[in-house]
Every structure is written in C-alpha cells, then in structure tokens.
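Throughout our pipeline, every protein is held as a single compact record rather than as scattered files. The remainder of this section carries one protein's record, kept here as part of the documentation.

===
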Amino acid sequence: MGTTLQETPSGNRLHIGIFGKTNSGKSAFINAFSGQAVSIVADVKGTTTDPVYKAMEIAPLGPCVLIDTAGFDDEGELGAMRMEKTALAAQKTELALILFASEDMETELEWFRYFQGKKTPVIPVISKSDLRSEKENQTFAEKLREQTKEKVCIVSAKTGAGIEELKERMIRMVPEGFGSRTITGDLVSEGDVVLLVMPQDIQAPKGRLILPQVQTMRELLDKKCIVLSATTDKLVEALEQLKNPPKLIITDSQVFDYVYEHKPEGSLLTSFSVLFADYKGDLDYYKEGAKKLMNLSADSRVLIAECCTHAPLKEDIGREKIPRMLKKKYGETLEVTVVSGTDYPKDLTPYDLIIQCGACMFNRKYVLHRIQQAKDQGVAMTNYGVAIAQLKGILDKIVC
C-alpha cells in the first residue's frame, strides 16, 4: 500500500532507536544519518534530555521515526529521570542501533542483550571512526563482534563514512512482515460494500475525523471497496438507500447496541476499536481478558489506559462512559483509575482488569510491551471495543 510522508501516522512508522553513552555521538549520528539537523550537538554531557522523536522519510527505509535518547551513563537525580525516558523509548523501538565509542563497553553490551532478549533487531555500531586509524577501528570491531556475534558497522558522523552501508544492513534487519498488517485483514475484498457508522460527537475534532476512522477509510479505498459513511442517526436511512446489504458495517463502539439492533441479518459487524485491537495488539488476549468483566465486583479495581493526552472531554469514552457502564453493573464503589499517554504503572497487580484504548497513537511494539507486562504480572487485559461489546452482550455476535 503506497503512502507518502504526510499520509503515514507516527504509530505506523518504523521506530529506530539510537542508544549509547553520553557523548558517544548519538545526536551527531542522527543528523548525519537523516541529512537534517534533528538533534542538538554539543560536547556537553546530558545535552539530550527527553528522547527526541523525529518522523521522516529515509531512503531506502521509507517512513521512520528516529529516536535520539539520553546516554546510558547519565548521572544524578535528573539523569535517573532521563534514563526512565530512555527505557520507555526502548519499549517502542522496533530496530535498535547501539553506538560504541570506546572499548569500555560493558553497559552497551547489557543493553545489546536486553534488545536481544526482547527479540528486537539490534545492530552494534562503532561511532566516531574518524578519531581512530583504520587499524584501530578494525581491532575494535573484531572485539565487538566476538562479544555480540553480529556484524559490526563502523561509521563517522563527521565524514559520513559507513552510513550507507549501515542503511543497507538496517534494511536486512527490519522485522519480517513489518508494515504488512492491515486493519481490516481478510474481512473484505475488492468490490465489497462497507458502511462506516461514525457519530460526530464532542470527541470528534471539529472539521476532522479521528485517526482510526481516517486510516480505516483509506485502507478500504486502497482495497477498492465501495465505502459509505453515516452518522448514527442516519444509519437506517443509509441502509434503505442500498440495493443490497453491506458486506461489513464498522461502527464506533459506543453505539454497538443500536447498530446491532438495526443492521441487516447478512451484514458483518465490528468496530474501529475492535479492528485496532488486532491491528495494534493481541485480540485473542483481549477477548480472554473481557471474560473478567463478568466476574468483577463492587470492590474491584479497573485501570483504563488511554494513548491520547487530550484534556478531559464531556462524555469521554474512557474517562466517563466506560466507568459509568462498569459502575452501573457493579456499583459505585468499583474503583476506576484512568491514565493517559505513556503514564502507565510499572506495578499492575493492584488492578483486577486493564482496559486499553485502540492505541492508534502508539506503535504495535509498545502496545505488545504493555500486553506482555500484564501477562507477566497475571493481570487480565482487554480494550475499549471488546469491553463494550462484552458489556452489551454482543461480543460473540461481532466479527473479531
């Protein structure tokens, strides 16, 4: 599916993380690698504070997000906070580059093994090669290769040496199948009629559609489907205009029950959030986690995890509607905690259930990290669309 720089959301780009000690040349490397002044370069330790995320098109890799991180050896209270951000960047990284600037490389090797353990492709890179002789660089590379058992790339941000060779290496290391996942999978094919039910309430940005709707619509058009859209109050009228029932109806999860009640018997039904549960996460795990919804009590604790960091809105689905549904079913004493963005607890054990949003703003690598964290701590997890379908009693009647 062809896309341009402007058309590719950040969450769908290849996330390339650059890691190393302070003053290992990470920022200078990113600038040389991208051909742009992405990061500030200075001979001062700690110049890079919070990770710098830069979306760009890099030939021949395509749409990417470059992540410039704080040094592994950052010190002090502020340094510890920076390292937390570096660890978060590592969770989002789909292809890691670790810069080795000296033969004192114990810390870098620990991170190298971390990425290997997470099954994240990782490339050892010797930086600042212009400061050493060719023989010194080769000796360094041999030692590093013995430790990593991987091909070592030698680069210089100053001269540009080795950059193109590294890009070729990165192409070969891109995770197999990256970018091949689709939102609608095999639910539809060319010529199928798809009806999108999209209520334009306060949560819809004025004059625009929300990202999952835009991405889904674009994919359906690329698949050569016949796409129609309507707000909830125009659903019946839209169906009456069709000669035959649509193959698939995709709705906002909030109106699942209304759309299910009015849909033609032969039409499949799902929601944007359910589709994104599979596209960005682990749908089977979410469906299993939804069973926990039927076993909560008035004393249960639920964590709702949003990706967006927007200001709270009236009738917000995560902050108001889902909590209201849960408390109506189990009582007002049920405790609901809402977090947004990357403010996600390390300790999930106080919660009986986690309900994750569709995660359109995050890449799949990071969502799967959250899922693994929940699995490791034995906490059930589901997502907005799957949870609402379960609470409405129609989870077994929709396609997911």
Q: What stands out?
A: Residues 185 and 279 are 9 Å apart (CA to CA).
